[in-house]
Amino acid sequence: MRKQIVAGNWKMNNDLAQTEALITELKKQTKTSNAAVMVAPTFTNLWQAYQSLKGSNIEVIAQNMHFAKNGAYTGEVSASMLKSVGVNTVILGHSERREYFNETDDMLAKKVDAALESGMNIIFCFGEVLEDRKSGNHEKVVEEQIKNALFHLDSSSFFNIVLAYEPVWAIGTGETATPEQAQDMHAFIRKTLANKYGANVAETVSILYGGSVKPNNAQEIFSKPDVDGGLIGGASLNAEDFFAIANAF
Ligand code: PEP
Question: How far, in Å, CA of 243 to CA of 61, rounded?
Fold first, then answer.
């Protein structure tokens, strides 16, 4: 059975006090979602968020990690460091990491390996830029991103991987892929997985959509058969909006 998931990526927003305030608001939301709900605060606030949300239905996850176990990598954070503050899931391959921090498919493959070796779960992001969409190359680009970073894995690794299709042109822009565009790409991703790993893996991996998901469009997007939830940026910074999205199935 595929899991429905709504994960909030808080990016480089919220200092400690603001993080605590947002968590207080999240804890006030009474509607419990059927989906697994996750939030990704910035590194400095992970421990506090983990402590504050312990015992709730909300999992605290990380936005990134380094592939090395430890060593001379100034400014970086390893899988074991994340685990030591209660974090068992990490977002990898976000388009902002690819664009601003030059994360390549090769580097992401190493991060994926390191996370899996440490027993972590991964939300693996990918998606095409606008030119690829306009030129009709979007499926090819997405297929390459998935193949290059994930297709060295064996099928059992996919028990610990969630995919997140995030067209770059729809992230933080207010521009959303239409529910049909999301569905078409998610079906294509599932077909790509099926070709390599078989129908069983393809049918059990959750595929999230990300890109300007808001309370007013979430339901239509999540109603599509191959969309298992969302990775939410801007709207996850408001507790009410985030929970409206988490309850939009
Ligand atoms: C994201 O950054 O993963 C994202 C989907 O952002 P937004 O919802 O703001 O488009």
Answer: 17
